[in-house]
Amino acid sequence: MNTAASPPLTVEVPPEPPDLHGLPNGVDLLTRLEGISADRGLDSLAKRLADLAVFVGGDLAALEDQIARLPRYPHAVGRGATHLLDLGGKRLRPTCVVLAARLGAGFDARALDLAVAVELVHTATLLHDDVVDLSETRRGVATARATYGNAVSIFAGDWVLIEALRRVGRCGMPGLLDDLLATIEEMIFAESLQLENRGRINTDRDAYFRVIEGKTAALFRWAMRAGGMAGGLGEAECRALQSYGIHLGIAFQAIDDLLDFAGKTSFTGKELFADLREGKMTYPVILALERDPDLRPVLEQVVTAPGNHALPEQAAARVIASLRETRALDDCLELARERSARAVAELSCLPPGRAAWALATVAEAIVDRDL
Amino acid sequence: MNTAASPPLTVEVPPEPPDLHGLPNGVDLLTRLEGISADRGLDSLAKRLADLAVFVGGDLAALEDQIARLPRYPHAVGRGATHLLDLGGKRLRPTCVVLAARLGAGFDARALDLAVAVELVHTATLLHDDVVDLSETRRGVATARATYGNAVSIFAGDWVLIEALRRVGRCGMPGLLDDLLATIEEMIFAESLQLENRGRINTDRDAYFRVIEGKTAALFRWAMRAGGMAGGLGEAECRALQSYGIHLGIAFQAIDDLLDFAGKTSFTGKELFADLREGKMTYPVILALERDPDLRPVLEQVVTAPGNHALPEQAAARVIASLRETRALDDCLELARERSARAVAELSCLPPGRAAWALATVAEAIVDRDL
């Protein structure tokens, strides 16, 4: 664990990133994280990421191949569905399936189906979320809804979900499809809670955690269970993997929250302040408001600014200053570190070896990502 | 069959319908159809509908009970999901499950689960369609999207679908869940085709039939198969039931097309000319345009009129006149009759008895409905 080191929240990188059409896929992500770790002097983590890239490289290439072979329907909904998938992405949820399977008997055709399925479920939620949030860009390019319209994005999300469920169904693993349906239900209900709280400037930590556990962590949990079951692991081991998934998901989301203020748009593919402008209370904002109540009217100004207008500059500067001065950004990073550590701790009762080592690497690297 | 009789397209009814809060549920629908048949002098059909109401009354009451017992989540998405279900509806798809099951071993708890599921799938599509079509009213009251917003209607549709799939999954009938997923895929692709053709004034019958087979008939087909399997019927019998479902669905849609021009809003819960204003080429419009090419600019005027403005009256009157003079409405009714007859013909290779008789009654009565 690198909790002792305190790297800056944004990493110095060349102003022009290397030839990124959309975001890199899974293996490229690992290479990129490796570079970041090396830049930060985390040589041991960089070395482990290089090892991870070799370990899962073939599996992630098989995943990309499967995604490329998805049915290509020429109609609007077909194009909308593959629009987002073809832009790549971090492929972090499929990586969870791969590593959990490799912790057991290995990554076979069935595990590959599940890895594709989890990426499809994630994609389906993005296609619907983009309509709900009226998002213009994702992964650095126009969203499906901006390109093909809201209707296409809704139906494309529906189709991608059906395609995912079909794959999980054909794996025939007892309880796994039911568990995915329950997971998707959790995701939907978390979205509902987020919708209801939208635009409410408050410091409700409980609501925050309920939202991110449902919206983000639940699918990581399912990915770990799916991989574990595909690898033939037992109930106790799958339970540990699921706990790993929940902690990893929360750590991942905490970093996402940070990147809303400290990310580089060219890497994340998202505008800064996007969450806040959509009226979403993220963890650093909750902390800053708790410690600096005068921030409230400024937050209100940002949240109520028309979506198609430039961010009110002075207000944005005031938010950033508060996030720094109250140490809200640092404590959000600390939350990610703590959950990352808890994820790693869950691995102690699992079979040791290269896969467990790789899962620990993922949990640590996720804290240092800038995309 | 009542193909010899030629009842008027709209039925004389009292100006104020009897205490309808939303639309009546399944059994009420049968009672209402019975009244229509009696009014039209179709005494034999009226008598058979009365018998049908007795035959399926208990099963449809069990369905309503299950729908009333669906989880009632207090959040926005939960309210949006049950908003539409609680308004009742024709429950025609569940009636298909009931009768197909009764053709076999009977309507048991598993068949009930499937009957609820098919109504949920139908509801999920309506929740998404209403967002796509920006619909303000359905079943005579404000849509979920008009009441709770587009976001809630999208997520509510997602949840209702998940709840449906969960029920079909727990029935554990081989291939049935996969068949439902394939059916939903067909429905989505038909929506895609309809979206692409939207606003295009053309006489493409082939596209029309592809849209309605996917959008409407496919789910009737699945309902018949689901009921047949739950009743323990064999493959050949299920195939005949599926063909019945397809023909019934097309007949149902043809009457829906008619009701866009000839329906009574207080019964259908839909505004007149709604399909045409949404740029959807329905069967009577296709026929009228084939026979009266001068209708084109008039149709264009209706289609391009702003959705929130009153229907251009002169254009509407011209469309109605053309639909009558070209006999487009009559031929659309004839399409419904022909498909109804083909549905009934499919029953010949099925076990005779009260259930087969009831299925024939449904196919005939569907042609005479006014809601």
What features would you describe in this structure?
The structure is a homodimer of 371-residue chains. By secondary structure, chain A is mainly alpha-helical. Chain A has 17 helices and 2 strands. Chain A has a single domain, classed as Farnesyl Diphosphate Synthase, CATH 1.10.600. Chain A has helices spanning 26-39, 43-68, 76-85, 92-103, 109-132, 144-148, 150-171, 176-197, 205-230, 235-262, 265-268, 274-277, 283-291, 295-304, 313-325, 328-346, 354-365; strands at residues 137-138, 141-142. Chain A has a two-stranded antiparallel sheet. Chain A is globular, with a radius of gyration of 20 Å. Chain A starts with 25 loop residues before the first helix and ends in a 6-residue tail after the last helix.
Task: Please outline the helices and strands.
The structure is a homodimer of 371-residue chains.
Chain A (H helix, E strand, L loop, with lengths): L25 H14 L3 H26 L7 H10 L6 H12 L5 H24 L4 E2 L2 E2 L1 H5 L1 H22 L4 H22 L7 H26 L4 H28 L2 H4 L5 H4 L5 H9 L3 H10 L8 H13 L2 H19 L7 H12 L6
Antiparallel strand pairs in A: 1-2
Helix pairs in contact in A: 1-2, 2-4, 2-5, 2-17, 3-7, 4-5, 4-9, 4-17, 5-7, 5-9, 8-9, 9-10, 10-16, 13-16, 14-15, 16-17
Arrangement of strands in the largest sheet of chain A: 1-2
How widely separated are the two ends of chain A? Answer: 20 Å
Tally of individual domains of chain A? 1
Radius of gyration of chain A: 20 Å
β-sheet strand percentage of chain A:
under 5%
Report low-confidence residues of chain A grouped into runs of 5 or more: 1-24
Q: Profile the largest sheet of chain A.
A: 2 strands, antiparallel
